[in-house]
Amino acid sequence: MLFPISTETRRCTSLDGIWDFSLLEIADSYDPSLPLKNGLPMPVPSAYNDIYEGREFRNHVGSVVYERTIDLPAPEPGRCLILHFGSVAHSASVWWNGKLLGSHKGGFLPFEWDVTGLIMPGTNRITVIADNIVDHTTLPCGTVQNRSYPGLAPKRVNLPNFDFFNYSGILRPVKLLDLPKTRIETISVSGTQDGSFRYEIKTTEECECEVEIKEKDHVLWKGTGAAGNGWIDGILPWSPEHPALYDLRVTLSGADGSRDICTEPFGFRSIEIRDGSLCLNGEKLYLKGFGKHEDTPVLGRALSEAYNVKDLALMKWMGANSFRTSHYPYSEEMLRLCDRMGILVIDEAPAVGMHTTFTATGMRIDVKDATWDTLKTQEHHKDVLKSMIARDQNHPCVIMWSVANEPASEEKGAYDYFEPLFRLVRETDSQRRPVTFVTHGEATVETCEVAPLCDVLVLNRYYGWYSEEGDLTAAKALLSDELDRYHQRYPDKPIMLGEFGADAVAGLHDSTPQMFSEEYQRDLIEAYCSVLDQKMYICGEHVWNFADFATAESVKRVQGNKKGVFTRERKPKLAAWFLRSRWKQND
Ligand code: BDP
Question: What integer pLDDT is reported at residue 362 of this predicted model?
Answer without folding.
Answer: 54
